[in-house]
């Protein structure tokens, strides 16, 4: 079983940098960065899945029941919100790794 990095186990408090050797501090920083990068994977997959919805909605609007065009529009809006929201999560996690 592969152990996945978790921020909760790698998280730190400012006082942590006052303790330990330089090697321990570097290991702690590396663990935080690895866990943060791992945390971007779920929202990236969400963005990819939501992006696929656009083509489905286009087909629904162009070829489907004319009465469902508004439903296709709502689907596009929901997919757009999912892509943008997941993108914000990725940006937030990336900022944490750049510190």
Element layout with pairings:
Elements: H1 7-10, H2 22-39, H3 41-63, H4 69-97
Keywords:
single chain; 99 residues; mainly alpha; 4 helices; rod-shaped
Question: Can you describe this structure?
Answer:
This protein is mainly α. The chain has 4 helices and no strands.
Briefly say what this structure is.
The protein has 99 residues and is mostly helical.
Radius of gyration based on Cα positions: 20 Å
Average residue-wise pLDDT = 83
What is the structural class?
A: mainly alpha
- Please work out how many helical segments DSSP would assign: 4
Instruction: Tell me how many strands there are.
Output: 0
Dominant shape: rod-shaped
Uncertain runs with pLDDT below 50, 5 residues or more?
Answer: none
What assembly state would you assign to the polypeptide chains in this entry? single chain
Q: How many strands, which pairing sense, and closed or not: the largest β-sheet? A: none
- Beta-strand proportion: under 5%
Order of helices and strands: HHHH
What is the helix content? over 70%
Euclidean distance between termini CA atoms: 31 Å
